[in-house]
Design goal:
3 domains, globular, disordered C terminus
Length: 528
């Protein structure tokens, strides 16, 4: 009887109309903008050595080319909802798209480190606006029964951007010039501007929103998030709190977070709406996406490092292995919206997290002889895991809040993913440094002069070196040097295994949070 009543009620309910062509143009514009912004996070990674050589920057200075982009992007993401209300969505997005084009041109023309960093900061600030606004466009322009398609498009761009960046950057650097990592954005940005003009209706600016803004919170946001990003990016290289730079930035970060907290109580409309975290479903999404972000960014750092330092792969070869995790995204794209409409989001996200854990555990048997194809299976499993975990989360974010809160919810969601990624990278760097030293010391401690196996190994190596020419003393020195390199290599492999294991544990702890999620209520598709 209950089922019959439900069917009758559903049949009697008015059905939502499909999205118009203009709506889909707006969604395409938002997704293209998000792809540009996420692609440029990592497109310079493979080209950094060439860029540093051309602009006269050292290895440490060159890291600011990536850090400057991340720092400004993460500040802009939560500001996007407010600036959209101030200027109107079309005016704001077209302005940021033009700024992104201009700063991309300046990046490509840069001949000094200062000019490059300033251009990257501007590029990141403009790009940061494109990520949450894409999610907002989808959440406000598509009817509920087509929301899954739009969110799948958005999620696909966010996943593929960081994966494609190093590969595309490496190819352009090898076959053209590193400057094309930035000039490539120019025609794409022009296409984006045309789509924005066509797909988004003009809105009146509301300058009262600018005057009455939460300026205390905005100042706190700029200080807190930019300082946090630099601390996480540079902390390991600067030896954390042994550095006066890190100590000073930590104080600025603390001041910024205090100002954000003050804004929560004094502003009529806080710049970051932390009250959204009172919603347990939304809070669960934020915790899960932060952890998944840490895992995605952490593995995107770990895997190329292993392939480069252990297997001897170059950037292009490593990128090909990384791209394997994008294959499932293309395979599932046609069926994912139907899965999201038919099955409970808790089960989809939970399945994705379980697969993510499995993919990490598949990398626990690494050896010094492991090469790229040893990661093929784990990368494919990880690809299915990412799309099953992330796609429903994109949709749940919009469904868990009220319509007027969608902009703030999208900003906090994307900010959390990026901060989670930065934390994942920082912790991975610390773990590699500390565990490498630990394993190296433990292996050396276990080797004693009384070990028969050790003596036989040393004697065989010495004889091998002597057969290549040279006296016994030189052969013994070469043997000791080779043993030291072997120990360091074994310690590195054990460290990479530790990192995959801990990332798997962190993801496993998020699985119970998936139970707090709820499948968004979707309307039936209208008859065709």
């Amino acid at each position: 009887m209950a089922n019959a009543a439900t069917v009758a009620t559903t049949q009697g309910a008015p059905q939502e109309a499909n999205a118009s062509v203009t709506d889909w143009i707006a969604v395409a514009a938002g997704s293209l903008g998000a792809l540009l912004a996420t692609l440029d996070i990592s497109i310079t990674n493979s080209a950094l050595p060439q860029i540093q050589g051309q602009i006269g920057a050292s290895g440490t200075e060159g890291t600011w080319i990536a850090t400057g982009y991340l720092m400004s992007e993460i500040v802009m993401i939560p500001l996007a909802a407010w600036l959209t209300r101030v200027f109107g969505l079309r005016r704001f997005l077209m302005g940021t798209a033009m700024a992104f084009t201009l700063f991309s041109f300046f990046c490509g023309m840069s001949s000094s480190l200062t000019g490059m960093i300033l251009a990257r900061v501007g590029q990141g600030f403009a790009g940061g606006a494109m990520i949450p606004t894409a999610q907002t466009i989808i959440g406000t322009r598509l009817p509920r029964h087509q929301m899954a398609i739009g969110m799948s498009m958005f999620g696909l761009t966010v996943l593929l951007g960081p994966l494609m960046g190093p590969v595309l950057g490496g190819w352009l650097t090898e076959n053209a010039s590193w400057r094309w990592c930035f000039f490539l954005n120019l025609p794409i940005s022009l296409a984006l501007i045309a789509l924005l003009w066509t797909g988004i209706r003009p809105e009146k600016a509301d300058l009262q929103q600018f005057i009455k803004a939460d300026w205390i919170g905005i100042l706190g946001l700029a200080l807190g998030l930019s300082s946090l990003t630099v601390i996480l990016e540079e902390g390991q290289r600067e030896h954390w709190f042994e550095s006066s730079l890190i100590v000073g930035l930590s104080l600025l970060m603390l001041l910024g977070f205090i100002l954000i907290a003050i804004g929560q109580f004094t502003a009529r409309q806080p710049i970051i709406k932390l009250s959204l975290m009172r919603n347990p479903r939304y809070a669960s999404v934020i915790l899960i996406v932060s952890t998944v972000g840490a895992a995605i960014y952490g593995i995107s750092y770990l895997l190329p490092q292993f392939l480069n330092s252990i297997a001897g792969y170059n950037a292009q070869q490593s990128g090909a292995i990384m791209l394997l995790s994008g294959v499932p995204a293309f395979m599932m794209m046609p069926i994912l919206p139907r899965l999201m409409q038919r099955y409970d989001s808790r089960w989809l996200v939970g399945t994705g997290l379980v697969l993510f854990v499995i993919s990490c555990m598949m990398s626990l048997n690494l050896t010094v002889d492991s090469v790229g194809h040893d990661f093929d299976a784990s990368q494919l499993v990880r690809g299915f895991a990412q799309i099953l975990a992330m796609m429903p989360l994109n949709q749940i974010t919009m469904a868990a809040v009220l319509p007027h809160e969608k902009g703030e919810a999208a900003g906090l969601y994307n900010m959390s993913r990026n901060i989670g990624g930065s934390i994942g990278l920082a912790l991975t760097g610390v773990l590699i440094d500390r565990r490498s030293s630990y394993h190296d010391a433990m292996i050396r401690e276990s080797l004693t002069a009384n070990s028969t196996l050790g003596q036989d190994h040393m004697a065989a190596q010495t004889a091998s070196f002597m057969s290549q020419g040279g006296d016994q003393a030189l052969a013994q020195l070469q043997t000791v040097g080779q043993l030291s390199r072997d120990i360091a290599l074994q310690a590195s492999v054990m460290t990479f295994t530790d990192c995959f294991y801990l990332l798997g544990i962190a993801l496993a702890l998020c699985i119970p949070l998936a139970l707090l999620l709820k499948k968004p209520t979707l309307a039936l598709s209208p008859a065709r």
